[in-house]
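Journal club prep — side note

Before the paper discussion, L.F. wants everyone to see what a predicted structure for a comparable chain looks like in token form. Sequence:
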Amino acid sequence: MSIQVGHPVWYESGESYLLPGILTAVQAHDNTLIVKDISSEEVLTLPVRSVRARHEDGPTGVEDMIQLSELHEGALIHNIQKRFITNLIYTYTGNILVAVNPYQMLDIYCVETVQEYEGQLIGKLPPHIFAISSAAYSHMRAGSEDQCLVVSGESGAGKTETTKLVMQYLAAVNKSSNLISEQILEASPLLEGFGNAKTARNNNSSRFGKYLEVYFDKSGVIVGAKTTEYLLEKSRIVGQAKGERNYHVFYQLLQGLPPEERDAYGLTKVEDYQYLNQGGACELPGKSDSEEFKKLSSSMEVLGIQSEEKEAIFRILAAVLHLGNMYFGSTDKNGQEAAVVESPAQLQSIANLLSGPAEKYDTSLTNKITVTRGEMFYSPFNIDQALDTRDALAKALYSQLFTWLVGRINQVTCKHQKEASIAILDIFGFEDFEINSFEQLCINFANEQLQFYFNQHIFKLEQEEYVAEGISWDTIEFRDNQPCLDLICKRPLGILLLLDDESNFPRATDISFLEKCHKEHSANAHYVEPKQRVPKFAIKHYAGLVWYQVHMFLDKNRDTLRPDLLELLQGSRSKFISTLFSNDDPPPSNARTPARTPASSSSRKRTATVASKFTQSLASLIAAMSQCHPYFVRCIKPNPEKLPSLFEDKLVMEQLRYSGMLETISIRRAGFPIRIKFATFLDRYGCLCPSSATQDAKSKTVEIIKTLAATVDSTSYQFGKTKVFLRESTERALEEARAQALKGVATLIQKMVRGFLARVRYQRLCAATLRIQHYMKGRLARMRYKRLRSGVVKMQALFRMWRQRMIFLAILEERHASEDETLSRMDSEQQQQRLAAITKGGRAKRPRAREQEPRGKETVILGSTSATGTVTSTQLDIPAELLLVLQALTKWKNPNHQKGLVGVKGAVIEHTPSIRDLPRKIDSFSFCKFAGTYFKEGLVYAMAKLPLPSSLLKLKSRSAESEAVALFKLVMRFMGDPNLSGVNQMVLGNYIIQKALAEKSLREELYCQLANQTWCNKEEESLRRGWMLLALCAGAFPPSSRMDSYLINYASNYGYDSYKAYCQYKLLRTSPRHAPRSLPPSLLEWRSAQSFVTTALQFHYPNGEGVYVLVDSWTTASEIAGVLLQNIGIASGLQGWSLSLEDDPHSCDLAGHGYLMDAVAATEVPYYFPTSPSPHLASWVGGVKGVASAPSKSSFAKQPPTDCKFLNSLFQPVLKAEGQGMSESEDEEGMITDIDTLVSTVKRTEDPPVLPTPAPPPPPPMTSHGQTGTGASNTANTAPPPPPPPPPPSQPVISQG
């Protein structure tokens, strides 16, 4: 083939493989060619013999490298590079997937991609890790055969991410989403945090091997998983090379823990810890350790790790960090060097975290303890030995914790028996560092085993099977690594076996082990002895020559914790730590015992070494994988700098060579990867057999494949003695033909079944139609009859209703005439009384009766009066319970007496309380209508001069009726007793209110009694007391929903003097949905109801600053907390705050919905008063007779917002009198009679809504700071607004001080 200018070529450049280029010119004079390299664009002058034509396989190469037109190393690497540059990172080699790490996120792993690859055969869609996962899942379901995905490659090639993608696919195609799938996925961040670390080659290198088996049931649903871990790299816990880090979890812990938890463990920053700062790479580029810690904590929660276990895990991690910072000094002890702990603070922290005695840890870390004949002997360590013991303790703690985590994950995820499984092997890649130690030898030994398994499956076993089956075959040579495995682990002189032997001799050293290796293996072709006397040796692995330093080989192989330290950990007070080490038997002591005989010495069980346990684990792993159908994923690292879009062909070629990729392509191209027994073939593809004649299985198989002669190549299959051998193309053609045949058969079956079902359905419909017609005709006839009958009945009902309505209207007209006559008589009596007063020359008081009379015909007389005559209030009975309270008042002093009520001398924080709007059509809710509807028959809605014989409303029980009658007597005594004043009056009123609070049915009854006694009441003082008691009731419990609008109308239109607006505000401040108060009103509320002044309480911030805030009967703790937070500039996060009252040694917390006045009233309950502590106080310690004692100081709950300091000491009612402005006239109970001299003024922005009433009189005289007003007696003609916070204009404000 002639080469022309511009054609693609291969050229030799001194490398061991050909490179691609473009021929740009031909120099005939010296017989040379000018070639431009494709990758570097370098122009080279080459002789003709070094250049040959290149066949171009398209701009993106081929998807399956078996289809390469040219088969050599250069063609392989060029094909992979072309695909990598176009972000096509996956390439097939038959059913082997080559994955190049892109070092960037690609949008090819979404849910749509999962759905696209689900159920598809390999080769039908572009190469992808989901295609391999789909093939494994489909084959598992088709034959219930266990599958295995072997993910291999060197460190940094992307094995861990590939494993996670396989699990992501299996979870996505899981037909029934369940918790198990989520737990399996969440185990990955947990194991990565504890088992991965940054190395020189990989930022997230797995430092342990993981074999994950995902269990499925018969329907293909994930039912569990089991994780097996191999060889955690313990040396990394105590030391790291330059540029490397310890395990991720340490950095995540220090960055993600809240400051208070970090301080509790005695932790600081990363740079302060010897075990973390040796590599100088404390931060991981592109990742946030604090965010990773959140994912770690979330994984623990999903996996069911309890908070106690989580805390124990953090304590162990903190103990490991503190161990690294423990340092030792030396001293002379009996003439020899002895190590002593010179960091007692670290020692104490370790002992506290591990829940053990500090002195025992001190002794065990600095002394060797030997037991002989029951006596303990202590031999001091030097500093190096003490450091080694410290490091051994740290490694034991971490490795045991890691093993427990893996076991806990299996405990959570492995709960069901498997029907089939898909295993994923993610194990450490081949490693060759500047300094390679025991860990690298084990890691590379594992990779040698995997390479041997790959060679056996791909080359050796396949070729042996071809020969046994008589298949035409050309033998292909491949690199057999069995000699290298024999060098490492073959009995009796393998390197690991020599290491185990040396580890069992107490006086053996690393040098003695090295000398034995030189002696036994110096002649081995795979063993290299150094030319100089240096402590190292080399092994020629399948991936290249690796030198190993023998320093610490024996100690790392023994990896035993001294018996005294082990017993100390097993005896820890922490159940978690003691359980962690409970299964560990202490290693045999090296102490000599005279009684030991040679027989007993030889029978002593040897401690299992790391090498022996690892060798056994690998053997079990290979045995388990041999029972599965394997899929191989070869991960390739494109460059050592971990940069995207950078492809170094030399590095990639090395990986392709030692993975045997060229030989794999050769054997896959020439071989038959699909081998199926004839009987199994017929079971699956028998539907393609054109004839039904009885033949043997092989003949039928041949006949089936010959039917596909038009679509498959005759070289793509062969028939053996017991099996048919196929290539991927033939299998795809068979699967497609089978799918078409099954589809045709299924369509035929569906056609026949649907026709049969249609005929059956038609026959049933015919029979059902006749039956339906029969029933429908009968039903229509019955419906017609019922309609006629219903019409007749309705006409009869309408006529009877009209006849009764006529009778009712006649009776109603007669009743209205009687009411008009009664109203006329009452007007006449009032005019006569007014005329008599004018005649006597006296000044008539402002008429009230007319104002209180109903307008129109609102008064409802339900029946005749029960009796005539009157009875004095002092003659009414007093309950024995109340009498006991009144008698005890001589020994009781109100802690918040009138001297504690002071005028506010400063600014008051204004805020707008929650006030509802007036009910709609309020004028239509006359209380007369309520009385006419709900009062008992025979009772008159008018002031009664005698006690009621029964309740006004219909109550449910006789006891409630009796209580209502007794309650009415107390109301009459409260309103009519001229001698009742001071504390006696307050106690009687609170007793009445408490009765209603205790019995819900009496609340509405009490409102009706008060409305009844204030209606048409001509006695001024009795009327004032009645309205004062009604106002106090409105501040203690809301009216019922049926009474609410009627009571608001009554108070707004007929309220006495200033109680009109005052009661209206109290009723609008609450609603029937609100909870009632728990205690009757406090002294502060009584003072407000008597003098119509607003009330305030003093609150304190943590810095001692006090502020006044307006409060009323319905003010809650959360409402005031929000006002106080807004006062200091906090505008958000106001929900959830409350107040707490403190008075050493007493304290109580207010619930957010608790009423402040309940807390104040709880301090003023007299002796024997029938009440109980308020349920709105979340906690209360102290007090007398179940009643809270007087608090003096309060604080916020300890819940600081994110943008302010802690707030406490918020609420402080001052209990001492402030002398300025206080009147000295007070009665013997301490009640101040001229209390108006205590008030000062604050400004209010708006008034509460008030019903339309006559024009209000001018407001009362105001007082300024330091001046007193004229008193309440000068404001008799005023109707100021009620006292809600913020206060009305010029409204006095008093505070409990």
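L.F.'s comment for the group: The radius of gyration is 49 Å. Keep this in mind when we get to the figures.
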